[in-house]
Amino acid sequence: MADNYDYDVLVIGAGPGGYVAAIRAAQLGLKTACAESRETLGGTCLNVGCIPSKAMLHASEYFDAAANGAMAKMGVKVTPELDLDAMHGQRKDAVKQLTGGIEYLFKKNKVTWLKGRAAFEDAHKVKVGDETVTAKNIVIATGSSVTPLPGVEIDQRIVVDSTGALELAKVPEHMVVIGGGVIGLELGSVWRRLGAKVTCVEFLDQILPGFDGEVRKESNKIFKKQGIEFKLGTKVTGVEVKGDKATLTLEPAKGGDSETMEADCVLVSIGRRPNTDGLALDKAGLKTNERGQIEIDHDFRTGVDGVWAIGDVVPGPMLAHKAEDEGIAVAENIAGQTGIVNHELIPSVVYTWPEIAGVGLTEEAAKEKGEVKVGKFPMLANSRAKTNHEPDGFVKVIADAKTDRVLGVWCIASVGGTMIAQATQAMEFGATSEDIAYTCHAHPTHSEAIKEAAMAVTGKPIHI
Length: 464
Known about the structure:
Layout: E1 7-12, H1 16-27, E2 32-36, H2 43-48, H3 50-67, H4 70-73, H5 84-108, E3 112-115, E4 118-122, E5 125-128, E6 131-140, E7 144-146, E8 159-160, H6 162-166, E9 174-178, H7 182-193, E10 197-202, H8 213-225, E11 228-232, E12 234-242, E13 245-252, E14 259-263, E15 265-268, E16 272-274, E17 307-309, H9 320-334, E18 348-350, E19 355-360, H10 363-369, E20 372-378, H11 383-387, E21 394-400, E22 406-413, H12 416-428, H13 433-437, H14 448-457
Parallel strand pairs: 1-2, 1-6, 2-3, 6-17, 8-15, 9-10, 9-15, 10-11
Antiparallel strand pairs: 4-5, 5-6, 7-16, 12-13, 13-14, 18-19, 19-22, 20-21, 21-22
Enzyme class: oxidoreductase
Binding site for FAD: 54, 142-144, 312, 318-321
Pfam families: Pyr_redox_2, Pyr_redox_dim
């Protein structure tokens, strides 16, 4: 064991970044502990984020297909009845199985779970609950939490955050979603499908900040068609709760007259912020940047020797898969190997219907860097999407005009989140649009749309 320390590696936080870092470190022969204050492992993602929201999204898609005639169109006549308790039950079951699975993996890999909140006493000593432990290397993987809206109190009854929005005991009549980002659109979609009227209020003039411009516009159209109403370029200046109703005060982002709107559920989803409060970073000799993040170098080292940081608490997109990759890389670096993450190629997915996914540069960002060629292919012309009654969306491939190297791929398709993996891998290998265009794709699959969009870069798709 390292220099009389209790552990070679202590990971603070057992979310996707932390638990993966702990398991990988243990696999590499390091004596490892992981501090986590929740009753279950897996962090936000498994307990109240990615996993339970997908359970509700998937179940609500089935209900919607039965209720809106999509199944009848295919010759399956049903009259659905919503059993919300059972829907919540299968969500909780998925969470229980997966969080329990991580506990099993900790035992299997001999990772010690230290239960309690962690705070630094110095760069190698941490107090976890009532216990003080030392470690040669400490990895901060404390994740993020919901960004509050100034002056708006979340009571998890009428005004909820993403956690509360997963737990609603009945379908709201009118849900107002504050924020047109990924989380608001996903959870808004769940309750819209189950019968709520949903209004999305976004400060910017378009939804999905950070996504390709064309994808943002097309997504907005699709969601409107599905019945979500949008108030873009609008600021929420107040939320007042009386009894079972909330009254929101809205005003144009660029100034003007205010208006009010009534709702029986308000979902605040304006983003997330790093969890650093209570860690006593100063005792370890660390401080955060102006965004509350811990700055790191390419190897995930902080400015203090032996202290590392990964995931939502460091700069970059707040995504579980980015944290997981960093967890593997940081453990390998601690073990003296070479752990790297290509931060240029972190895919983003919105798990609405259809899914929205992208990797690499948007067309706007690519054009700022130089001349580009763009190929597009509509899902309407894809045979599998056609037979599945999934006509919405398109695939877009952005390539460098001189070298043909693929700079970005964006898609809206029912299985967009799965399709984007192919594009990410191709780009990891430095693929040109021609490489993708001349790779055989199975027929009939949604992924053929990627091949056709790549062919369209040089102007010759077959099916349009």
